[in-house]
Every structure is written in C-alpha cells, then in structure tokens.
Design a protein that fits this description.
four-stranded antiparallel beta sheet; about 35% helix; alpha+beta; five-stranded mixed beta sheet
C-alpha cells in the first residue's frame, strides 16, 4: 500500500502529462499501483483487518441485551454474560456498541407562528418560601410563554391542584390581555394526562375558545422554550435573593420579568417585548365576562361553623348554622355566601392544616351557646283550664246523675 504522499505525487505527475509507465519507473512501484492511484476517488487509508479479541465470544449476547435494554449498566451486562476479564476493557467495548443499538429520536426545528401557541409549565424554585404559620415550603410557579414572542409570564401559586392551576392561568392570561390559540402542557396531573382531562379543564378551555394540547412522553422539543426559561430562572433570578412570603416572591419575580422580557433572545435575535404586539394581534380575545374558576363548594354549615378549602379550615358566622352556604376561594381570598350575599371573608392561607378563626365568630358562638343552654320560661295559658261540666256534656252525662 502506497503512502498518502506517494498517492498525491502520482496524481500530480500524471496530471502534468507524465506517462504512467514513466511514473512507475521513476518511483519504483508497479504500474497497477499507479493506475489504482489515478482512478481512486479517495486517499489511501490504512485499515486494520478485524481480529478476534477476548470480547468477541460475548459480543452477540451483549448486542442482544443492549437491543432490549439500551441503558443497562456495563457491570450488569458483564454479570449477565459471564464476563470475568477486565471491566475497563469490557466498558470500552460496550461504549462502542451502545450508539448502534440506541433508538434514534430526531429533533425537528419547530416554527411558531404569531398567536398560535403558548407553552405552560410549573417551575419549582430551589428555595423554601416562608408561610403564615412559621413553616416554609417549596411552592410551584406557573409559567406561560407565548412561543412566537418568547414573552414570559409567571406567578407563584399555592398548590398543583386543578383549581389553583386554572386560577393562575386565568390571571396570567389577563395580564397578557389575549388568549393563545393553543395552550401546550406536558401531562400535568392537575390539567390532564393522555385522553383524560381534569375536572373543570374542558369547561375552562371552552370558555377561552382555545385548544389544550397534552404532549406525549419523550417530546421535549415541543415545550423546550418554557423549560429552558425554568433553568434560566434558577441561574439568573434566584442567586442572592431572599423571600419573606409568597407575595414577596411574586413581587420580585414580576419586577425581574419586566427586565428579562426586554433583553435580546439569542434564538430570535430580538427582544420578546418587541415581538409581543404581533403575537397578541393574532391571538383570540379574552372572554367578555370573568371566568368562574377556583375552589367552589356548597355545604350545610355544621355546629362547629368551619368550612374547609384545600387542607385549611375557615370560621363562618355561626348564626347561619344548619343552612346551605356557598364557599369560593381564589389565590388570595376565601369567601362564604348565603343566598348570594357575602357573610364571611378570609385571606387565604398557603400553609397546610391551619385553622383560621375570626374572633367575632367565636364571640357570636358564645352568645348563641349561652342562649341555647338557658331553659325556656313556661308561661301559663289561661285557655288551658276548662270547666268540668264541659266534659259531662261531651260524654252525654248532663241530667243523668252526673258525678259532682
């Protein structure tokens, strides 16, 4: 086999008009070698012929295991096939076989038209937020990003329950001022999974006149915009910050998003705020009336005059014990209505297992309890006393020797 330098020299001499016979004679090589160099389409390359190694007897079985279980660790494969040699040598061979057995998952480059879609996700900041009862908790942040403009909206919410997810979504859509034609979610239990929709979600999407898209598993590209923002929050927003409450977090996060949406995004080479108008213009209008979303329940108020929202109990005016009341709650307030009239209102507590009591309700309950425990005074009724002659006449004893 000739070297790369000889191959290049042969082709140059022949191209200059030197006969192949003369080239072979001058270089001391065979004419057939010169002919092959002239007609070849690629430079000469030395390839070592395949040789049997200690791994060769195990290769077929290893390929079979990798086909069924592409992520199986090399140590487990070595145990399954009975390998007793160097584990480092075995790993090197496994590393070369894995790409051949792995299934290919091509990633398309998606084009997002104005107004078409918004990607929705939950981000969990890696820092616990102080709550009303002195405890602290990791709380979710609902993030919605219109895909065309990359404009980011976000808000911390109390739970991942459907009620709070819809409340947060409605609040962020009101901030956006329009409704994207599609809302893309990644199988969040509070929204839906597969063909199933969580209770109330279909009605919510119907009122928006938008379409809910639940992604199939292993489809990160279709929601990659919002997920990359989640990682960006942790590296650009969180460092060096402290929070005293969820409200404090939301205030700081909103202020930071105003700045972040004014920075140039590398992939679109412009600022999200500059693309927002075109994105909004192609979206749907907001519903003409406010949506009735959130926690809603109708209960008959019991003797303990408390109602439950999520995991917390809130006191109610005890004068309506035994009557049906309507309990509603949004992200900030809990309200109790009797026949459409608000009779009790509390600030919603984000801690769990708390009891929220209005002192006025306790005072009213004390008065009602004392009144209940007092025996009722018996007022004599003059109409209850009757003449004995009335009974004689009733039984027909008049004038017949009635007993006197």
């Amino acid at each position: 086999m000739i070297t790369l330098e000889d191959w290049a020299l042969i082709r140059r001499l022949v191209a200059d008009g030197v006969p192949q016979r003369q080239v072979a004679k001058d270089l001391g090589i065979g004419r057939a070698t010169v002919a092959r160099a002239v007609t070849s389409t690629s430079p000469p390359k030395y390839e070592r012929p395949p040789q049997e190694t200690s791994f060769s007897p195990f290769e077929a079985r290893v390929r079979s295991l990798l086909t069924e279980h592409p992520q199986m660790p090399a140590t487990v494969i070595a145990e399954r096939v009975g390998w007793s040699g160097s584990i480092t040598w075995f790993r090197d061979n496994i590393r070369g076989l894995r790409p051949e057995q792995a299934r290919v998952d091509p990633a398309d480059r998606l084009v997002w038209e104005p107004g078409d879609a918004a990607q929705c996700d939950l981000w969990f900041p890696p820092k616990k937020i102080p709550l009303e009862d002195g405890t602290s908790k990791l709380l979710p942040v609902l993030v919605i990003t219109p895909a065309h403009s990359r404009f980011v909206l976000g808000r911390m919410i109390p739970t991942r329950h459907t009620e709070d997810l819809l409340l947060g979504s409605w609040e962020l859509l009101q901030q956006l001022g329009r409704v994207p034609r599609r809302l893309i979610w990644d199988n969040e239990a509070g929204i839906g999974r597969g063909p199933r929709r969580a209770a109330g979600v279909a009605e919510f999407m119907g009122m928006l006149a938008s379409r809910l898209v639940l992604l199939k598993p292993r489809d990160p590209e279709s929601k990659g915009i919002v997920e990359r923002r989640n990682g960006w929050f942790e590296t650009s927003f969180m460092p060096g910050r402290t929070f005293v409450s969820p409200a404090d977090f939301n205030m700081q996060f909103t202020d930071w998003l105003n700045l972040a949406n004014s920075r140039i995004v590398r992939t679109v080479k412009t600022r999200p705020v500059d693309r927002l108008d075109a994105d909004r213009a192609a979206m749907l209008p907001l519903p003409p009336v406010a949506l009735q979303v959130g926690w809603r329940n109708r209960v008959r108020l019991g003797r303990d005059y408390y109602v439950r929202v999520d995991s917390n109990d809130y006191s109610v005016d005890p004068t309506v014990i035994g009557r049906l009341v309507d309990v509603t709650a949004d992200l900030d307030q809990v309200r109790v209505r009797l026949e459409g009239r608000v009779i009790t209102q509390h600030a919603r507590v984000w801690a769990r297992g708390a009891t929220i009591t209005d002192p006025a309700h306790v005072a009213t309950a004390k008065i009602l309890r004392e009144q209940f425990q007092q025996p009722r005074a018996v007022v004599p009724d003059e109409d209850l006393s009757r003449d004995l002659a009335d009974y004689d006449r009733a039984f027909g004893l008049t004038g017949t020797g009635a007993i006197s």
